[in-house]
Amino acid sequence: MDSKAMYKLSYGLFVLTTKVGDKQNGCITNTAIQVTSDPNQIAFAVNKANYTHEMLMESKVFNISILSEEADFEVFKRFGFQSGKDVDKFEGYDKYDVSSNGIYYIKDGTNAFISGEITHTTDLGSHTLFICTVTDMEVLSDASSATYEYYQKNIKPKPEAVATTPEGKTVWRCKICGYEFEGEELPEDFICPWCKHPASDFEKVVK
Question: Taking the model in full, what pTM does it have?
Answer without folding.
Answer: 0.81
